[in-house]
Amino acid sequence: MQDFLQQTLSGEAPRKRSGETAHLRWQWLYHGILLMEPTVQVKQALVLSAGIHGNETAPVEILNQVINPLLRGEKPLQQRMLVILGNPSALRTGKRYVRYDINRLFGGRWQQIDDGDEARRVLRLEQTLETFWQVGECDETRWHLDMHTAIRGSYHPRFGVMPHNERPWPSEFLDWLAAAGLEALVFHRSPGGTFTHFSCEHFGAASCTLELGKALPFGANDLTQFSATQQALAALLYGDALPPATSTPRHYRVAQQITRLSEHFQLHMSPETLNFTAFPQGTLLAEDGETRYYVQQAREYVLFPNPNVAAGLRAGLMLIEEGEQTQALPI
Question: Which domains does the chain possess?
Answer without folding.
Answer: 4-238 (3.40.630.10), 254-321 (2.40.50.630)
